[in-house]
Amino acid sequence: MSKEWKPRLVAFFCNWCTYTAADLAGVSRLKYAPNVRVIRLMCSGRIDPQFILEALTKGADGVLIGGCHPNDCHYVEGNYKMLRRFQLLKRMLGDMGIEPERVRLEWISAAEGEKVRRVVNEMTEQIANLGPLGMPGRFAEWDREVESLAAQIEAREGGGCGCGSSGAETAEKEVAHV
Amino acid sequence: MAKQEQEVRIGFYVCHCGTNIAAMVDCPEVAQFVGTLPGVVLSKDYKYMCSDPGQELIQQDIREHRLNRVVVASCSPLLHEPTFRSATEKGGLNQFYFHMVNIREHDSWVHTDRAEATSKAKALAQAAVHRVAHHKPLETKRVSINPTTLVVGAGIAGIHAAMTIANSGKKVILVEREPTIGGHMAKFDKTFPTLDCAACILTPKMSDVGSHENIQVLSYSEVTKVDGFVGNYTVTVKRKPRYIDEEACIGCQDCIPACVFKQPKFADEFNEGLGKRRPVYIPFPQATPQIVAIDPNTCLNFKKGEDGGRVVSDKCKKTCVEACGDKNAIDFTQVERIEEYEVGSVIVATGFQTFDARRAPAYGYGRFPNVYTSLEIERLVNASGPTGGHVVMRDGKSEPRSVGIIHCVGSRDKKTNVWCSRVCCMYSMKLAHLLKEHTGAEIYNFYIDVRTPGKGYEEFYNKLLDEGVHFIRGRVGEVTDWAMTPDEEGKLVIRVEDTLAGYVRRIPVDMVVLATGLEPQQDAQDVRRMFNMSCGSEGFFLERHPKLAPVNTFNDGIYIAGACQGPKDIPDTVAQAGAAAAEVLALIDKGFVEQEPNTAFILEDECSGCKSCIPLCPYTAILFDEGKGRAYINEALCKGCGTCVGSCPSGSIVQNLFDDEEIFSEIEGVLAYE
Ligand SMILES: Cc1cc2nc3c(=O)[nH]c(=O)nc-3n(C[C@H](O)[C@H](O)[C@H](O)COP(=O)(O)OP(=O)(O)OC[C@H]3O[C@@H](n4cnc5c(N)ncnc54)[C@H](O)[C@@H]3O)c2cc1C
Ligand code: FES
Could you say which architecture CATH assigns to the domain B353-519? Predict the structure, then answer.
């Protein structure tokens, strides 16, 4: 972390359109920012909101989701299903104080290598301006807060039944599970 | 997740791909780094992993080092995943104990900073190493191939592919949306560069198709729906009503002259509107099938219905029915029919459309009667065309004494289509030759570059130069009827900057021909969607690989041939059609396909029976067991998108090859490297 900070993006691309578009960007030797790491899924419909949260908690500064254009999903409508989940997730992320630019959904067809380049560059730049998300650090901080709260409660209650410590444990688990 | 599994022993290989990867990614450094990761037993870099020695290396290491997982970092899995899976299998492991990392298309080719590209490669490799530990042995499912093939579009591409397949004894269903097969080639008089007669080479092939015992021609029909998977597709075909009983019509055409319209009156589509036809017509004498059609929009026996469509009015004397007599082939009550066919593979050969010349208004098409499109001239010089091959202008009598042919109309132009249509230079010269032959007129070609790549093509160009056809280099600015001198009076003036002479010229001519470019069909996007293909940025269907899989698409079992894949001439079209037919025959002969086992299944013990997955499945593969109160997946119907998996609230659906453990470990792996 002491090194110069650079945004790290995790991308989930569907096999049929966006992953192929990223291949096309490669074949066409388009150049874009090296900050994105792509995870291939068969369809954007496979994307569980937990994947996005997991990526953010494990240190991603942004998440990009790429799927086929509406009507073009290889599996008819996986992208619509994804879109619905995405809308809900966006609201939740907002409540968590995560800037909307950090999680982005783009429809990119197999022919749009150029769009992969554009979107990755745009996102890298936006997130570079926002600065690190620092979820792992925030979690550590929250954990410490909860721990100290637990300790306070325990001290106040005189450490009788031990329920205080188990409470802290569950709290910790829940946080880690987000 | 404690499973009774033996210790994970991963072999990691990073490919230089010559210098394709090694120039931007420090491969030895990646190998060295991955070698330090837990579970990795050996880690190597090698010049060409996909080569025989590369694959041999994997197999040998599996045996010698008792590897039980393999990771290769090289090109896109869409290119070489099958190669390395098979090497893994040959080494004695289940092929799904393999994972691939894309550090070429997604890394070395798109980045410019070697240090950054190298760390990206490391991160991606680490993710794969984490992921592969969770891989499970899977079996592919063998699905048998239905030996019948669907060919969509019956231009020269579809015809040639259908014949090739049918001649090998396999059944073909050939769907053509026009009343006749033949496509564009049926409209030509001669073909470049040999100037052999198009009809003489095409029409025998057309009638062979029509009478072939293995080919069922569905003309005047369109595919409306495609269900299923490679090997077993169900296609729905809409048979448009031609108001003729195809079984009963013997092609005598007695009904045509018997029509109440004594003279042909309506613009004839086959002749690009230059000729006239009656409401009951056959597109051209050698049309296949030899079955007439009735056009309800012009036939007096129809009127406008309430929904705007045409309904039978029964107002006509029906002299055609009389002429047909006891053959009773005319059936005004015919309606659109929907039929279903079962096929194993599909060749899409839907061809091209020409650029609409009205989109280049400076050239005056539609404004000046004597500005023509190339297809119109094809009909005009055609011995079986509307004028019997007599080249006259729109007034119906005067022959042109000078003709200007403008190349690249709607090609190589940022404002319209940027691509070169590949055949226009050649067909322009063909038309120049034919117009000169028919009329003796002075012919001027206005070109940007003359492009003649093809066997005998440059020679054809030289021949034209010898014939005294003029070539003027420059993109034409406009065609105008505004005369500046007396000899421009009554003529069309072509204004062009002659870039060889270095000044702007005005060339008065009687007739202008626009060499319109080739474009994707209007409905290419719908067809693409129906067959689950992709289009390139211009809208032509996208091949799986431009060099190594030029007739395959990303959808197994669906092939493309001809000008629907990109502009091309007849020789290339036929070559592609043959290639597509060979692909289909190879598939049929093999008899089965191995299906990727990426289907989903439900963990019965964990399913809460909430049913939220059931409506999400586009294939109705998820069923509910009322007795157990649990959902279950019909594996045969599941296509492996994972949509249900992503939305199961209790996390009880698992997708093979993409299960949660695998993806979470990939996410973690990709981020664990700084
Ligand atoms: C003016 C002109 C002159 C030319 N001259 C020459 C020449 O001299 N020599 C040469 O080598 N090449 C020539 N060409 C190029 C030649 O036309 C093409 O190479 C050739 O026609 C391509 O054949 P195809 O079967 O791929 O497409 P097409 O000929 O376009 O045939 C496609 C067929 O598919 C049908 N179809 C389309 N969509 C559907 C659908 N959704 N469902 C069912 N059916 C459908 C169409 O009705 C058509 O019958 C010329 C082109 C032009 C424009
Ligand atoms: S396959 Fe691309 S979004 Fe479904």
Answer: 3-Layer(bba) Sandwich (3.50)
